[in-house]
Amino acid sequence: MNFFGWIGQRFIESLLYIIDFTYFFTHSLSVWQVQRNVFNKAVYSSLLGQLIFTGVDAIAMISFLAVMAGIGITSQLIYIMHAITGASDLTAILARIVVSELGPVITGVILVGRSCSAIAVDLGNTKVRGEIEPLEYMGIDVDDYFVVPRIVCMIISQVTLALYFSIITILCGVFFSAYIYNFSAQESLTQLLNTMDIDIVIVFMLKNLFFGLIIGAMACFHGLLVENSPTQVPQQMQRAVVRGLVFLFLADGYFSLFTL
Amino acid sequence: MNTVTGTACIQAYNARPSAGESALQYPALGCQVLPATLTCLVGPHRLQLRDYLQMLAGISIANQGKVEIFGQPTSNLDKLSMRKLRSQIGYLSGTAPLLSVQHGLMNVMLPLLYHRNLSFRETADQARALISDLNCDFDPTIFPALLNSFQRAQLALARALIMEPSLLFLDVPFHDLGAKQREEMGELLGKHIQHRAVCMIGGLQYPHFLEQYAQQIIFISEHKIINFPGWKSFMHSEDQDVRSLLSILQGTN
């Protein structure tokens, strides 16, 4: 195959992949359909379990990284802004870089590495062991019980953890800088809160909602692509992680363009 | 229990399952499974039998002919009706294990929580009652991987029965148990199938069970289907294919 043939083949494969993926998550999330049975106790219990695994269990790691990012990145930003422009643009820069960019992206990367891989492996193994079929025979829908709770939890976790990450990063950065460079932390935080208009909040929510949707859907999609061989589990897990990161950064780029 | 009286639970009219990738011939099957009776499909090809069983269970659609479950043709059902129908049917497969990420009790509770949406406490009470009725003398809140195959089989049976189905399908159940444990499971099954229509494959592993409970044995091979009204007439059949299957079984037993 020549070079252009190879390029063409890859393009068609990518296009088909995007169509498959889009179909998967629109179909999985079409919970309003009459035959779906999403609002029941079985799904609720699965949702709770996933929320603990994806959200609560990740808090320690997110906290640690947020403190480190606060000390390492936010304080550097504050130092640079003080050195170049004084404190006048500080809050706008913090809102733009930490709240709109750093928080969602770092949280997304952690969730891809931690939960996306785990979900893909979990669903892949469940499928390889033949545990899904008997549930279908009992009338339990795979999308209702396995997919929807995982995607919903990923969205909730992404939004709340990104918010938590941003708050801790800013607080740590501001207090650390105030201690080192001797300025008023209270004043900076008040200015930052005043800078937070509704647009920033909406973009923050939309961005994290979309990130969570992508990560959750990618994990479930690749987990359920496993057929009957255990060797497919690590392959699909790797694809879920890599493509999750690619889509995450593509979405981030799109939002950055949108908010410029 | 969902009771169905009078009419047949399953009615197959010259139904032929889809052969898929199999090179086997699939003769057309005409039969009915009545309430509170046990029907066993037997034959030399297990995959072929499974295709017929899944067609009768409404899991796959008949390639030709018609199958009705509780009077409803399986080919015409929309997804909502199919889900309702599936909630009235128990399906126990020897190859289909419990969900390993949930503990035993939750595995049993799952169909009830999904279909009936009862409270957790009410569902757990029902599940525990059924589990103890099935002589489970172990803690059901243990994950399936930590249980032995007999305990897992007991929980799998409990999961198939928790919705109190009036129709139960057994797909080579308890295939990984030893002879003694299979006999014990046969006794347990016998206790719980008396008011249900049961359709099974892999029953020849339990000759005493079939002798006691089977009202219909359907022999299926590549070229013919023969209905026998019970174990005795099956055992006394003069048909060459049936004799050859029985001689193989006697050789292995």
Q: What does this protein structure show overall?
A:
The complex is a heterodimer of chains A (260) and B (253). Chain A has helices at residues 3-28, 41-54, 59-84, 90-128, 132-137, 142-181, 185-195, 198-225, 232-259. Chain A is mostly helical. Chain A has one domain (40-258). In chain A, α4 runs antiparallel to α9 (232-259). The mean pLDDT of chain A is 90. The longest helix of chain B has 14 residues, at 120-133. In chain B, 38% of the residues lie in helices and 20% in strands. With 253 residues, chain B is an alpha/beta fold. The model of chain B is unreliable at 1-5 (pLDDT under 50). Chain B contains 9 helices and 10 strands. In chain B, strands 6-7-8-3-9-10 form a 6-stranded mixed β-sheet, with helices on both faces. A 4-stranded antiparallel β-sheet of chain B has the order 2-1-4-5, with helices on one face. Chain B is globular, with a radius of gyration of 18 Å. Chain B has helices at 46-56, 79-86, 104-115, 120-133, 149-161, 179-192, 207-213, 231-235, 240-252, and strands spanning 10-16, 29-33, 38-42, 64-69, 72-73, 89-93, 167-171, 197-201, 214-220, 225-228. The chains are: A mainly alpha (260), B alpha/beta (253).
Number of strands of chain A: 0
Strand order of the largest sheet of chain B: 6-7-8-3-9-10
Our estimate of the beta-strand percent of chain A is under 5%
Could you spell the SSE succession of chain B in H and E letters?
Answer: EEEHEEHEHHHEHEHEEHH
Please describe the topology of this protein.
The complex is a heterodimer of chains A (260) and B (253).
Chain A: H1 3-28, H2 41-54, H3 59-84, H4 90-128, H5 132-137, H6 142-181, H7 185-195, H8 198-225, H9 232-259
Helix pairs in contact in A: 2-6, 3-4, 3-6, 4-6, 4-7, 4-8, 4-9, 6-8, 8-9
Chain B: E1 10-16, E2 29-33, E3 38-42, H1 46-56, E4 64-69, E5 72-73, H2 79-86, E6 89-93, H3 104-115, H4 120-133, H5 149-161, E7 167-171, H6 179-192, E8 197-201, H7 207-213, E9 214-220, E10 225-228, H8 231-235, H9 240-252
